[in-house]
Design a protein that fits this description.
The chain is of the alpha/beta class. Helices cover about 35% and strands about 20% of the residues.
């Protein structure tokens, strides 16, 4: 086992061994993958964790038996990542989703317009992210079904209103998430926590930066919160920083785009495979077709880190934008 693994990883590993169901194992494995430090000494461990996650997800998908009844909060994941947007009333969640996606959530200037989650697809280059508008949450009330929705998400966006005490809003939302055992990756985990935490990638977006003078208020907010999470000031009304917002989602998702081609033909540059960063050629082959893992002999790669058409083996680490030609 690689050195320098933190105690949280060893604790999570124990919970993984005790987990009884595929879904429970996936939950802990994803937490372990988040905890593992990123360096060459952990490459094989991270690859193994991703393989196990994929295996148990398949098991959960094909497991027979009575499935849990679906509700409005049971939203199947689509695209490169599922992004759940949370926040207090009237911060502009619905307007943000309406502007960036093909969804049509109800938008109004009064609070509590959204009563159920509404998903929509936000394009980024040749891939898409699933953004989910959600009912507002406060310290006084949150729909109980929201907890599972947030816990299942790949990324959590905390949307605040610059003109409505964003400091208090931020403290309230982070407190609520903590009561649900949901924490960002860089947050300390309470020692008295009796159940497994849910470690999530998070982005804080401060909306309604509609005027030039709002920049100063945003900087004051950053200082007062001593912000350690990725944070972006936006204006949905003026479409300010919304392109940067989606770019941030791409960075947080930690995925890459890989294109394929058949021998002697042009590559398909419209529908890339979306895979986790640091994935190997072998892992890509398994995503394309399970038989490829066994039958794959080698591949040719066109990309920034190799010579055009360079032959590579199964342990080659795929790079964003690579074009791959499989040989079986």
């Amino acid at each position: 086992m690689p050195a320098n693994l933190p105690p949280q990883y060893l604790e999570a590993e124990k919970r993984y061994r005790e987990a009884k169901t595929p879904n429970a194992k996936v939950e802990v494995l994803e937490e372990m993958l988040t905890i593992v430090p990123k360096h060459k000494g952990t490459d094989k461990l991270r690859a193994d964790l991703r393989r196990r996650i994929s295996k148990f997800k398949d098991q959960a998908l094909h497991k027979k038996g009575v499935s849990r009844k679906k509700t409005a909060f049971s939203i199947d994941k689509e695209g490169a990542a599922q992004v759940v947007v949370v926040g207090p009333p009237n911060t502009g969640k619905s307007a943000l989703i309406d502007t960036l996606t093909n969804a049509s959530p109800e938008v109004a200037d009064f609070p509590h317009t959204t009563h159920k989650p509404t998903p929509g697809m936000a394009p980024y280059k040749d891939i898409q992210f699933q953004l989910v508008d959600t009912p507002p949450i406060t310290r006084d009330y949150m729909d109980p079904s929201m907890a599972d929705l947030i816990r299942r998400a790949d990324i959590v966006v905390v949307l605040l209103d610059l003109n409505a005490d964003p400091l208090q809003q931020f403290e309230d939302i982070m407190y609520i998430l903590q009561t649900l055992r949901i924490f960002p990756g860089n947050a300390p985990i309470p020692e008295d926590l009796t159940k497994s935490p849910f470690i999530k990638k998070m982005l804080v977006a401060v909306n309604k930066m509609d005027k030039p003078e709002d920049e100063e208020d945003f900087e004051i907010f950053l200082e007062l919160t001593e912000m350690k999470l990725p944070c972006l000031g936006i204006s949905v009304r003026n479409v300010k920083n919304l392109t940067t917002f989606v770019e941030k989602l791409y960075e947080l998702s930690e995925v890459i785009r890989v294109y394929t081609k058949a021998p002697g033909k042009e590559p398909d540059m419209k529908s890339p495979f979306v895979i986790p960063r640091e994935s190997t050629l072998e892992e890509l082959a398994g995503k394309i077709h399970k038989d490829f893992v066994v039958k794959l002999k080698h591949a040719k790669i066109w990309g920034k880190s190799v010579r055009d058409g360079q032959m590579v083996q199964k342990d080659y680490i795929m790079q964003d934008g690579d074009v791959v030609e499989m040989h079986i």
